[in-house]
Structures
1.
Amino acid sequence: MWSRRELANRIRGERDGGAEERAIDAHVKNLRRKLDDPPAAGRLVLTMTGVGYKLGVTHDD
């Protein structure tokens, strides 16, 4: 599980910036659009509210 800040640090180094964290949201959105197709297959990128993101599969039954 990674927070936005951890992901930004891994990608761009130790620079601090809120804009980079928002860029992470946009990239996650694009990944979801590509990976979660068809939607019935379940989500591969999960949001952990207040924590960050993790990889996994959930099925909307």
2.
Amino acid sequence: MDRRVVKTKTALRKALFVLLAHEPIDRISVSALCREAQVTRRTFYTHYDRVEDVFTEYQEDMRRQVERALSTGKMDAQTLLKVFDRILMANFDAFAYMCRNLHEQQLVQELQEMLFATFCEQLVSGQPTAQQQLTLQYAAYGVVNSYVYWFNHVKRVQYADVVTTNRQLLTATLAVLA
């Protein structure tokens, strides 16, 4: 992709997340987004039809990033958690927005499913049994939901507690598989 296009799209994404901190996406105008990103409306319309398209494209990019990172070869449970955590923290603003807004739950569900599929591939040799699938789904959904809870309760829950608790719970959950 052309560097100018990447620069423009990056500026629009950053501006969108700045504005999302104060307004829901359906109340952000193209003009406000362009002003914040310091791009013209004409430039915006070269790449997008509406403000929501910027976020949709970002979600698709994030989904691909998670899929690539989680499918890079055999990893143990703790490494998988570290990779997943690193991706979420690198996309902090977007994930926080998705966790706080119920109408954006589709990507959260997709993250849960991706993590579950990765757990099945990485943590079980062969085809997982029904009990193993239930256990791994419990673990994957629990990990993602702990982040969702944290983003919605940042004043009550520390990030370090989320990481530590996820490690401990995953270890305990995987003991059920043994």
